[in-house]
Amino acid sequence: MMDVNEIREYLPHRYPFLLVDRVLELTEGESIVAIKNVTVNEPFFNGHFPDHPVMPGVLIVEAMAQAAGILGFKTMNKKPQDGSIYYFVGSDKLRFKRPVVPGDQLKLEAQILSERRGIWKFEVRASVDGDTVSSATILCADRKV
């Protein structure tokens, strides 16, 4: 549904911090399904960990937040170039179930729970081959740049 070129219109992130490769499904005002292809060439694997590469949990959370950010921007019919930015401002019930390693395809899902005064609440989940690797409730704030 959205390739990386269109994703770059809705996220201000760039390499090496753009963590969404493709959007498979998006229902404005409701939910998104996106993917991140995890390759051994990711810069963080050089140090995390050299002999046992594991994707850092904070980057899994960031990938889920970026998917939620795309959903929020599309729902508001805004883009970063319009002078709006989406900040990740909090998480609850964050859990990690298993490591993410090179060769995995991370499926990122986000569902809007609520929005009040520019603060958005999302239920997010990351999975590999149908198995949950991480889940959380996150908060994002829409702010002017």
Biggest sheet, spatial arrangement of strands: 1-2-4-5-6-3
- Count of strand segments: 6
Residue share in helices?
A: 10-25%
How would a textbook summarize the main sheet? 6 strands, antiparallel
CATH architect. name: Roll
Radius of gyration: 15 Å
Q: Could you spell the SSE succession in H and E letters?
A: HEEHEEEE
CATH class: Alpha Beta
The SS-based structural class is alpha+beta
User: What are the low-pLDDT stretches, counting only 5+ consecutive residues below 50?
Assistant: none
Intertermini distance: 28 Å
Domain count = 1
Number of DSSP helical runs: 2
Mean pLDDT: 97
What is the CATH superfamily? Hotdog Thioesterase
Q: What's the shape?
A: globular
Percentage of β-strand residues: 35-45%
Chart the SSEs and their pairings.
Elements: H1 4-10, E1 22-27, E2 31-37, H2 57-76, E3 84-96, E4 105-116, E5 119-128, E6 131-144
Antiparallel strand pairs: 1-2, 2-4, 3-6, 4-5, 5-6
Keywords, separated by commas or semicolons:
single chain; 145 residues; alpha+beta; Thiol Ester Dehydrase, Chain A; six-stranded antiparallel beta sheet; 2 helices; 6 strands; globular
Structural account:
- The chain has a single domain (4-144), classed as Thiol Ester Dehydrase, Chain A (Roll).
- 19% of the residues lie in helices and 43% in strands.
- The chain contains 2 helices and 6 strands, in the order H-E-E-H-E-E-E-E.
- It has helices spanning 4-10, 57-76; strands at 22-27, 31-37, 84-96, 105-116, 119-128, 131-144.
- It has a 6-stranded antiparallel sheet, with helices on one face.
- The longest helix is centred in the middle third of the chain and has 20 residues, at 57-76.
- It starts with a helix and ends with a strand.
- The mean pLDDT is 97.
